[in-house]
Amino acid sequence: MSTRSTVSRREFLRRSTVLAAAGGLAASTPAFGVHLAGSDLLRVGLIGCGGRGTGAAAQALSADKNVKLVALADLFDDRMKICLSSLQKRPELAEKIDVPPERQFSGFDAGRQLIGCGVDVVLLCEPPHFRPAHLKAAIEAGKHVFAEKPVAVDAPGVRSVLASCQLAEQKGLSVVSGLCLRYSYGFQETIKRIQDGAIGQIHTLQANDYRGGIWVKKREPDWTDMHWQCRNWYYFTWLSGDFNVEQHVHFLDVCAWMMKDQYPARAIGMGGRQVRTGPEYGNIYDHHSVVYEYEDGTKLFSNTRQMPGCKNDISAAAVGSRGRAFISEGRKGLRIAGEVNWTYDGPENNIYQTEHDELFASIRKGKPINNGRYMALSTMLAILGRMVTYTGQMITWEQAMNSKEDLSPPQYQWGPLPTPPVAMPGITKFV
């Protein structure tokens, strides 16, 4: 475990905002499509070295012939070692890896150090809480970014991401989202047909994410509160946003996509902890049920739960004035029933690879991709769902977007940090 000194929340954010002015950064910030010292080598840095980060790094290295992984950052040293070892064991990637100890950064300051070490592309795969600050720092420093989903855990984070992505657009930088279903050829064809009127005017949407249990990290005797929470980050709302945000955001985003990236006016719902009730499960819920309503009366019914031994279903559906659409991953999972029945039978693609292929192609071509609006607002859609299940109140989109609730801890240090209380509907207040 890193033993770096305490970093206050204010200092953590301040450091993220001044990176562009830091010594040496100007020299490592190429204009779009131009690379350092006249070279066309793209240097990649990974922040967040868990399983998803390791996968993203492999996909980035496979996306372009002249790319190298040159830096790693994580809260924990051992995660970096596992990640690096895993990547180096792949013969097709080994020659594209050059990460000496001096470019392996750990602790709460690790992301800042990586962004300032001369990388061209930053992969953000850390726990979602840290993503807004890292995105802001990377864009201000002139870096292209791949940002995993979700991009924030609270409304201040969403507002920060929207501002950062607007700045990226001004700077001509690419920002590609980890909402990978948008990069599925099958999903793209299906949504295009829906948007073109294949089922008529949509009046009802449904998003399901019913799945079993997920990993949990047992607390070790020598772990401090902060250490344990960061190791077990999925189960703490301040780090993950709760699983309604961390996982269900995918199919909530698909519903927003069907609605041409329009978002609902209000929501109400319920949720709680029925199975995952022990302290090892932090303070998140194990089920959420939310009804979102658009201004025109269209409703989105959102249901998600994580309970072992139950029937699983991860899908979306839409009902319109002239038909219905059914959307899920896998062959024959994309269907339209209406005036013309249709099932997608076109090519399938590795959506995780495709998003990186398109990111690096956009850099080479000088034609930036910016997924910022939908990745931020679909994250907000999921956060709004959590807000209503936690409070038991009806909350409008405007109220949610303007929320002052900041889930950040008082300071970033390896020490005491009480587990936040489990939200109690009717008692927990909207902030």
What does it look like?
- The chain has about 425 residues and is α/β, with parallel strands linked by helices.
- Helices cover about 35% and strands about 20% of the residues.
- It starts with 6 loop residues before the first strand and ends in a 19-residue tail after the last strand.
- Mean pLDDT is about 90; it is low at about 1-5 and about 15-40.
- Helix 7 links the parallel strand 6 (about 145) and strand 7.
Residue share in helices? 25-40%
Taking all residues together, what is the mean pLDDT? Answer: 92
CATH superfamily of the largest domain: Dihydrodipicolinate Reductase, domain 2
Q: Largest sheet at a glance?
A: 9 strands, mixed
CATH architecture assignment of the largest domain: 2-Layer Sandwich
Helix/strand layout:
Elements (H helix, E strand, L loop, with lengths): L6 E2 H9 L24 E6 L3 H12 L4 E8 L2 H12 L2 H4 L9 E3 L3 H6 L5 E4 L6 H10 L3 E4 L7 H17 L3 E3 L7 H11 L6 E10 L13 H7 L5 H4 L2 H4 L2 H10 L7 E7 L14 E7 L5 E8 L6 E8 L2 E5 L6 E5 L3 E2 L7 H15 L6 H20 L3 E2 H5 L9 E2 L19
Parallel strand pairs: 2-3, 2-5, 3-4, 5-6, 6-7, 8-11
Antiparallel strand pairs: 1-17, 8-12, 9-10, 9-16, 10-11, 12-13, 13-14, 14-15
Helix pairs in contact: 1-6, 2-3, 2-13, 6-7, 7-14, 12-14
